[in-house]
Predict the 3D structure of the following.
Amino acid sequence: RQVLEEMRALYERNQADVSEAKSGRTDLIFLIRFRHCCLLRNQRCVLAYLYDRLLRIRALRWEYGSVLPTTIQFHMSAEEVEWFNQYKKSLATYMRSVGGEEGLDLTQDIKPPKSLYIEVRCLRDYGEFEIDDGTTILLKKNSQHFLPRWKCEQLIRQGVLEHILS
Amino acid sequence: MCEAYFPVDPGLGLEENFLSLDDILMSQEKLPGRAESALPRLAFVLGQGVGTGDSIPEGSKLEIPLWLAKGLHDSKRRIISVELPKIYKEAWRTVFSADANVVDLHKMGPYYYGFGSQLLNFDNPENPEIAQTILQTFISRFRRIMDSSQNAYNEDTSALVVRLDELERALFRAGQKGLIDFQCWEKGQASQITMSSMVQNYGKRKFTDMDG
C-alpha cells in the first residue's frame, strides 16, 4: 500500500513536469525520464513480489491439500484466497477428467508406492482418525499404526505422521 | 524430495527475467558513470546536492544502480555514460586469465556473471573481451564446483561456497541435491514419504502480526 502511494505521488509530480516541459523548457526531459525509471522499477518490484506469493500459494495446494490451516489463511489477502479457490477448482476439474470415471487424484502417490499398507508413527497429537472399514484410531504422540497408504499420505506430508521403514 | 514451489529463474544472456527476484537483486548493484550533460534537480536524489533545486554539473562522476543506468542510457548518449566497474577492466581480466580459481567472486560483487551479461547491453568497445573473459572464468571454475558439490556429503559446506558468486552457488546447490537424492535412493529411502520442506519451514516460523 505504501508503494502504491509513493507511485501515485511520483506520477503526479511527473505530470506537473510534463506540462512544464511542453511549455518549452526542454532541459527537464532528463528529470521526467528519471522519474519514469523509478516508477517502472517500483512496478517491477511489486509485481515480482505478488507473483512470487502466488507461486507459493500454488505450492501450498500441493502440500497441504484442499484446506489451508488458519494461520496461513490469515496472512493471505482476499484476492489471494479467491485465486486459491479458483486454482483448487481448476485442479479438481482436471483431475476428474483424467483417468476413467472417478478421476485420478494427482496429489496422492507422489513417490511410487511399494505396498498398500504402511507403518507410521504419530509425531503429534491429532485426535481421532477414521479409516474405510469404520474403525477409528486415536492418534497420540509416539503411537505406531499399520494403515493403508492412501489415507496417511496427506498426514505424512503435513508432518503429523512419520513413515517408518522396516 | 519433490518440491512444489518453483520460483522464477534469473534470465540468461542479455535480457533479464522481469519477474525474477534474483534479477531484481542483481540489477540493484551499482555502476560508476558520468553525467554527460547537466541534470537539473536531480542532485538531491543522487546524493550530491543539499537542496532540491540543485543540478548536477556536466561531467561529474556518479554511482548509479544498473536499472537506472539501463533506463537513462540512450544510443545518442545524452544523459549518462557508463564506465566499467574495476572488476571487468583490463587489470582484472589478466588475473582471471591467469588463474580464475583463486578469485573470491562473492566479495567482488555477488553477481559477477549476471551483471557482466547486462553490461554487454551498453555500447562499449571492450565488449567482446569482457564476454570472452566471463566465459573463460566460468569454464575454469566450473570443474571445481562440480567436484566439490558431488563429493561433500553430510558436511558443512560453507567453506566451499564462500568464494562463489550467486550463479555458481545455484549450481552447487543443484549438485548437492542430486547427490543427496542419490544417496537416499542407495539407502533405500527413496520410497519413504517425507514431510515437505514447506511444511517444515512454516512449522518453525512464528507468525507475527503486521501493522497496516
